[in-house]
Write a structure and sequence with these properties.
The structure is a homodimer. Chain A is mainly alpha-helical. In chain A, helix 1 crosses helix 2, helix 1 crosses helix 6 and helix 7 packs across helix 8. Chain A contains nine helices and no strands. In chain A, 77% of the residues lie in helices and 0% in strands. At the A-B interface, helix 6, helix 7, helix 8 and helix 9 of A face helix 6, helix 7, helix 8 and helix 9 of B. Chain A binds a DNA duplex through helix 3.
Chain lengths: 194, 194
DNA sequence: GTCTATATGTTGATAGAC
DNA sequence: GTCTATCAACATATAGAC
């Protein structure tokens, strides 16, 4: 792997741990080079972080697209559950939740604005795709189409809320998988009867 | 107001903006004193931040207790809605969402552990109190007691998810109040039919 | 209680040798 | 492409005068 890729890979971990306050020396140390060498690949710290963020968002986007294709193979009723668990697992792996959290808290205003705009774009795109999945998966239910919008919104909220819980409980003993099951069952129970 | 209070008040804003990476000179400048003067009131940066966090969590706790008392005056069915809007408004005021977000992302491991433990304690306490409100407010519904637990869990998740959206959309044009109404109506619609 | 002066380390970034 | 050397600015923290 070339140095540039190596830098970006390590910045992923460092940004998750320290957010925008990660230092150039942190990066250099993790890669095994000296600080000035970094400037041969990037113009500065902001460019490195912004690149890492763009890659991570694109990665998640790609992951979601792959998942949406894959779930076509499963029975309609199972798809939403499968997708839910996949998304949670994506963020649970490594430090991804912390990474995404730090994205929205960057103290550099311009960088944060760009980042949040990127996240919103991605979410709106996902929102539309999810809506189609929902319409497909809940055809025999009495759910009106206008309600589907709200139910998709809730699907997002549930995931966001769950990720928040996972952050807060990161350092303490916690039966996560039971908790996740409970949440899904509640959600499914609620929308099935709606 | 004495200097110590003034420091803590300003640290509240600074921590919301910069998180753990706020600097002693940031604090000094905001209060209008020199850095060494801060050490006459606190042993160091960690103590200041930890104190500010404890105060904020206690403040929220107190706020919730006051709200729980106040809503007794409203009709049973309106209580949960009123409480929902109150909580959202609490966090929407000033930089409180950012403050709470930064709490869970402190790069100092020990401080973060203590902080998250504090948050969990507070939430567990709130959880129990909310459960009682729910049992009181949904007596004529066919909701079984075991379901109430899950519905309260969802009440929390919905709020957490909504706060996440508010963070992501902080810098862009966004019809927040419409969005909030939509979420509440969906939630209420779902649990009313359950 | 607040200050000046200072210690000691770290930050992001650049110049220029190899 | 990587390095050493260097920079000015900043960090947390302390000693000691007033």
């Amino acid at each position: 792997m070339d140095t540039k890729e190596e830098i970006l890979k390590n910045v992923n971990t460092l940004f998750a741990q320290k957010g925008y306050s990660l230092s150039m020396s942190d990066i250099a140390k993790s890669v095994g080079i000296k600080v000035p060498s970094i400037y041969n690949h990037f113009t500065g710290k902001d460019e490195i972080i912004w690149t890492a963020i763009q890659i991570e968002v694109a990665d998640f986007f790609e992951f979601m697209d792959m998942e949406l294709i894959q779930i076509n193979a499963t029975p309609s009723l199972e798809r939403l559950k499968l997708l839910f668990y996949s998304i949670i697992q994506y963020f649970a792996y490594g430090d991804k939740i912390q990474f995404w959290r730090n994205m929205s808290l960057i103290s550099n205003l311009e960088l944060r604005k760009n980042t949040n705009a990127l996240i919103c774009d991605m979410e709106n795109n996902m929102y539309k795709k999810l809506q189609m999945i929902f319409i497909e998966c809940l055809p025999d239910k009495k759910t009106e189409y206008e309600n589907i919008e709200d139910i998709v919104l809730f699907y997002f909220l549930m995931i966001k809320g769950l990720l928040d819980v996972m952050i807060t409980h990161q350092d303490i003993q916690f039966e996560l998988s039971t908790y996740i099951d409970k949440i899904w069952n509640t959600y499914w129970g609620l929308i099935s009867r709606a």
